Amino acid sequence: MSFLVVHRVSHTYFTKKTAITALDNVSFSIEKGEFVSFLGPSGCGKTTLLSIIASLIRPTEGTVMLEGEKIHSIHPSVGYMLQQDYLFPWKTIQENIFLGLNIMGINTQETRQKALDLLNGIGLKGTEHHYPNQLSGGMRQRAALVRTLATDPKMLLLDEPFSALDYQTKLKLEELVWKTLKDYEKTALLVTHDIGEAIAMSDRIFLFSAKPGRLVRTFLIPSELRRLSPFAARQHPTFSELFQFLWKELDSLETVK
């Protein structure tokens, strides 16, 4: 059985006067260790789907299964990284990256040391006792990644985690996140509006239609790109060809009335 299975998921937001369907009959499966991106027009339900997989929202219809078991509540095997770092400004970086360990009741000397080793490994050695306002945006996002990985989740959900960064920092962080997830053999789902980012980081891209969100196409990234780091993939001739193709596909979805 696949690592993650999303089966016939639909979701409607209800108010007193309206009912807005965000997702309609979405099904797919993801294998362990895959990096998959969700790409589609604004408002197509990508973040809603990520929230359903994280059990932050219960779908109106359908099921989500992780390693053969239905997910009913927030699962320790799932880590979530958002657009903003959401570090607590009154806590040190060390205190911030230990938060998940405290919440899950696994704050031991061993898990704390692993978190600090990871902090050092991604270039933040010596920042343990700094506060978030003493770090740049890219450094804070790296600290947020450590906080997410500290609890050793099997799968990471990434909701446009680089969108608030300048372009150079964004490229560096893409490289770092990609390498870190490969080294730790994590499964990852990325929500993004950036076609280049999706191509550079992914094994597959799921393309969604506009409201209501439907999974309309799945693209397997060519092997010559998948084996390259994101920065190297952007330099490959195949990258430009695939970018133009996906651009046209997205444009056709956005212009459909």
From TrEMBL:
Record keywords: ATP-binding, Nucleotide-binding, Transport
Matching CDD domains: ABC_NrtD_SsuB_transporters
Residues annotated as domain ABC transporter: 7-235
Molecular-function GO term, any one: ATP binding
One Pfam family it belongs to: ABC_tran
Record bears the keyword ATP-binding: yes
Taxonomy, superkingdom: Bacteria
Protein name: NitT/TauT family transport system ATP-binding protein
The organism of origin for this protein: Anoxybacteroides tepidamans
